[in-house]
Write a structure and sequence with these properties.
By secondary structure, the protein is an alpha/beta fold. The chain has helices spanning about 10-15, 20-30, 55-60, 70-80, 90-105, 120-135, 150-155, 160, 180-185, 215-225, 245-250, 275-280, 300-315, 320-335, 365-375, 380-390, 415-435, 435-450; strands at about 35-40, 40-45, 50-55, 110-115, 135-140, 170-175, 190-195, 225-230, 255-260, 270-275, 345-350, 350-355, 395, 395-400, 400-410. It starts with 11 loop residues before the first helix and ends with a helix. The mean pLDDT is about 95. It binds pyridoxal-5'-phosphate.
Length: about 450
């Protein structure tokens, strides 16, 4: 029997059968919209609102929503009726996409293992680095976000993500992001297969390391026989202006994990780029040719979308755009937000920017801020997100591991007028935060309700 769902209240099926708490949180934040159409940087709701996307699904939509060229490539592939995946043939498109990725990455990255997500890419990096080095230890940076599977979780220091899911992998060790001396001390023990690090920490608070940090890390890793793995799940595919953030820093990692934006935000995908030597350590004989794989990893739609996405990124020079417009955005934000004491600065690379908040000095603001922090440390930034969304129709997020940093990461096709809109909106919200008691009253009441949600 087919049950008609037309008459059911909005989101009831999701709340009843998927994740009720997510629906409650969106309701609390007044962000529970029903989206009907999405193009480029704009999202259109069933209620007639137009929302500007400055979140990009956590850096998935580098090419903008539903890019027509990527849609066309997928339609064509579906109409062809060829093999989606057989697990008993050579998926030629995977070879084509791997070649393109290796050419763009350059250097010694000559082999690719495809996955269906970023976390799975991190798991792949863990396995391959262990196989290659014969060591089991794994180094990672404090504040990192690498995904929510157990291996990836074992490389994250914030207990919020790991609580209740242990035990994690043994032999992992965190080092402060940016500290060469701490890294060297750990590497010298020669216990570690890999140092897995985001070249720019995204969820950690859009933390861009000093110019020499990653180059020094590469040199040290080589000296101590540890592989350097860059998690470029958010920073890759021109997000920071170059194909890889590694290129910005002049570093050649032994492995790079890509995912998210690789398929135009349309098909689950991931790719781990690695050297031939690392790859051969796992695929060392015919018998071992299937020892690491993933059912959907090389599926034809992901591969086709990947090829079309790379075409769009290159043809529309989206890296150069991200670089130029992103730098301009940060410059303007720094200027207009300079008078506000609760803004500590603006930082980022390419079209990945963070507005960093800090505790106020003025007593009047400080009392409100501290009261708020005591009730719910995570909610302060969420109020900014909520205000931007509700009052200005702009979708943003707070960094997952740093609640005092608002992330601005629009699709790389964002227009200058849309960036202007964002700047005007954020100034208005931050001004309100500094001048209006209604901002804090609303924020406090939200925080109290959040505690009970
Ligand atoms: C840097 C980084 N690595 C890995 C992941 C995990 O990717 P996925 O959610 O596709 O598994 C994420 C997800 O946000 C990420 O930001």
């Amino acid at each position: 029997m087919v049950v008609s769902t037309a008459a059911l209240p909005r989101h009831r099926l999701y709340a009843e059968h998927v994740n009720p708490q997510w629906v409650r949180l969106l309701n609390l934040l007044q962000m529970n919209e029903r989206y009907e159409r999405c193009y480029g940087c704009e999202l259109f709701t069933s209620g007639g609102r137009r929302i500007l996307d400055f979140l990009s699904g956590y850096c998935v939509h580098n090419t903008g929503h539903n890019h027509p060229a990527i849609l066309a490539a997928l339609h064509e592939e579906l109409d062809r009726g060829g093999p989606a995946m057989l697990q008993s043939h050579v998926p030629e498109l995977a070879g084509e996409l791997a070649l393109r990725l290796c050419e763009l990455a350059g250097g010694l990255l000559q082999r690719v293992v495809f996955t269906s997500s970023g976390s799975e890419g991190v798991e792949t990096a863990i396995k391959f680095s262990r196989a290659h080095t014969g060591r089991s230890g794994l180094l990672y940076a404090e504040g990192a976000f690498h995904g929510l599977t157990c291996g990836a979780l074992s490389l994250m220091s914030d207990p919020f993500w790991t609580e209740g899911f242990g035990p994690m992998l043994p032999g992992t060790q965190a080092v402060p992001f940016g500290s060469i001396s701490a890294l060297e001390k750990q590497l010298a023990t020669k216990k570690f297969a890999a140092f897995i690090v985001e070249p720019v920490q995204a969820e950690g608070g859009i933390r861009v390391p000093d110019a020499g940090y990653l180059r020094a890390a590469q040199e040290l890793c080589h000296r101590h026989g540890t592989l350097l793995v860059f998690d470029e799940v958010q920073t890759g595919l021109y997000r920071t202006g170059r194909f890889l953030a590694a290129h910005r820093f002049g570093v050649e990692p032994d492995m790079v994990v890509l995912a998210k934006a690789l398929s135009g935000g349309l098909i689950p995908v991931g790719a781990v780029l690695m050297t031939e030597a690392v790859n051969n350590s796992v695929f060392s004989s015919m018998k071992r040719s299937i020892v690491h794989a993933s059912t959907f990893g090389e599926n034809v739609l992901a591969m086709r979308a990947g090829l079309a996405t790379l075409d769009v990124l290159e043809q529309e020079s989206l890296g150069e755009r991200a670089d130029a417009l992103g730098a301009d955005l940060r410059q303007r934000l720094s200027e207009v937000l300079a008078p506000y004491e609760m803004v500590d600065g603006v930082r980022g690379a390419g079209m990945l920017s963070g507005i960093v908040f800090t505790a106020p000095r003025q007593l009047r603001l400080r009392v409100a801020f501290e009261a708020f922090r005591r009730i719910h440390p995570g909610m302060f930034g969420q109020v900014v997100v909520m205000r931007l969304f509700r009052d200005h129709g702009i979708l943003t997020q707070i960094c997952g591991n740093n609640f005092l940093v608002l992330k601005a990461a629009p699709p790389l096709v964002v227009s200058e007028a849309q960036l202007d809109e964002f700047v005007a909106a954020i100034v208005e919200v931050i001004d309100l935060m500094h001048t209006s008691t209604s901002f804090w009253n609303e924020a406090l009441s939200l925080a109290r309700r959040a505690v009970n949600v």
